[in-house]
Amino acid sequence: MAASLRTWSGRLVARPWLLAFVPVNAATAGFGVVLPLLILITLHGSWTEVAVAATLFNTAVILSSILWGHLSDRYPRRRLFLAINYGAFAAIYAVLAGVGTVYTLYALYTVLGAFSPAGVSASNLLILEKFGEQERPTAFASFQEMSMVGSLAGLLLGFFWTASDDALRALLYVLGALAVVSAVALWFGIREAARPLTTASVARHPAGLFSRLRPHIALRNPVPFFPARPPWRPHPVARFRAWAAEELRHELPLILLATFLFNLSSNLFNISYTPYLYTAGLAASSIFLVNLANNFAQTLVFPSTGGLANRFGVDRLVGRATYVRGVGYLATAGFTFAVLARQGTFEANVLVYALLGGAIAVYTTASSLMLFRSLGPRDPGRLLGVNSALGGLAAVAGAGLSGVLALVGSFRLVFLVASAILLASVPLWTAATVAYHRRHPRPVAGPPPAGPDVLPGHNAHRGT
Q: Which residues contact 324 (CB under 8 A, 6 or more apart)?
């Protein structure tokens, strides 16, 4: 299974048209840094207003994901949905370049959230439809590589742009143009598949499932996935009781709860991090470089995560990656002390945020493999729907909690709370491992073959 996650395996891309995803990933990665800076620098807003904008955006993403997932199945026009998605990015980026008040930005950013999931299912289904069974792991790996390359390019563009000129509004036009390039390239570069698939097909293929669990570049969390509504009639109470009796003996609830806590802490930290860097006195160009360090570390580490999972085991990797993230959060909280903030703020944050980037790459692969091995005969589409819905809830809750703490606390408190929430997930991962091995006990070696002193028909004692 880990082999399907390997990347950069002696090729550039599985098919040339996958290069069309590079510009739009550059646009969304750059925009992820521009948006909070637009609030803080151009509109003279505050950390609270960044948190409010993120809350509205993530709420729109959750609600609209249901609609776009349904439309992707009803109207299998992948190019159309990608054109709508990337065209909406370009149009809203251009309008945001002229925004004058934070309330107008709230409205536009919410609309952007409503359009953000439009192309997620379409892009994954496009991979499944255009590649055969044997090619799909390579295709999804290439798709992820284009995301990594694009994100690095977008952050480098933001750095060079803001290093020479702080015109964030003009940068939005450039990012919008990149989204248009992807939309046009995909529209003219591919044809619709002869046999369209449904959204649930993504979860049935391991590489597709991993692609959906990997955090989206623009959102920093998985886009919610709703392939079908689970049945609740007739007898909803009896259904729930039967489900609870089965699941409480399973490791899946523990995995879902641990994942929720991890995503909650990550969103709380990430939403507050850019305002913290700005308050610490870093220039816009330096903030782009800090984010570049995070993405660059992910790009370096992610190709080796499959091999690490085979060598050390996914259970150990999840725990180690979580600990590393927790230490990074605590280190960032330490940077908020005045003595440490006077010198070396940029260098310290580059190192720590790079460490966090490498840890998230390891965690994403290991946690995805733990989830996948626990599926068994279950419907992966429904389970992935629950998992990503919890991810969406964590995104909204993290943004909301960031806004509350912005009113009553400090960045130091936010990073400490994020670390506490994150470390609370560690015993849940351990319990999930124990539950899994109880359901799948390791075979115990039997006795040596029966010799002449063992009567026929008798069995030697076997350990349990």
A: 355, 356, 358, 359
CA separation for the pair 462, 102 (Å, rounded)? 71
Tell me, yes or no, whether 455 lies in a domain: no
Which structural domain range is residue 116 located in?
2-227+248-439
Q: For residues 107 and 95, is the Cβ–Cβ distance under 8 A?
A: no
CATH code of 95's domain: 1.20.1250.20
Q: Give pLDDT tens digits for 381-426.
A: 666 667 777 888 888 899 899 988 888 878 999 999 999 999 999 9
Q: At which residue do the structure tokens 């349904």 appear?
A: 70
Three-class secondary structure of residue 219 per DSSP:
coil
Residue 453 pLDDT class (50, 70, 90 cuts): very low
What pLDDT score does 276 carry? 93
Distance between CA atoms of 35 and 174, rounded to whole angstroms? Answer: 14
Of 74 and 464, more confident: 74
Q: Tokens representing 416?
A: 């400490």
pLDDT at 443: 61
Q: What count of residues does the chain have?
A: 464
Distances, alpha carbon 289 to alpha carbons 20, 63, 153, 196, 314, in Å = 25, 33, 12, 41, 31
Asked if the structure places residue 382 within a domain, the reply is yes
- 380 Cβ partners below 8 Å, 6+ apart? 203, 204, 209, 372
Of 85, 175, 176, the closest CA to residue 122 belongs to 85
| Separation between Cα atoms, residue 200 and residue 315, nearest integer Å | 27
Angle at 333 between CA 262 and CA 424, to 5 degrees: 30
Q: Per the structure, how many domains does the chain have?
A: 1
Residue 448 lies in a domain: no
From the number of C-beta atoms within 10 Å of its C-beta (0-12, 13-18, 19+), residue 241 rates as exposed
Q: How many CB atoms lie within 10 A of CB 2?
A: 16
Cα 229 from Cα 299, distance rounded (Å): 35
**If you search the block for the tokens 């008040």, which residue do you land on?**
101
The pTM (predicted TM-score) of the whole model is: 0.83
SS3 282: coil
Lowest average pLDDT, out of 37-46, 196-205, 356-365, goes to 196-205
Report how far apart the first and last C-alpha atoms of the chain are (Å, whole number). 29
Indicate whether 402 belongs to any domain.
yes
> In whole angstroms, what is the distance from residue 128 CA to residue 205 CA?
9
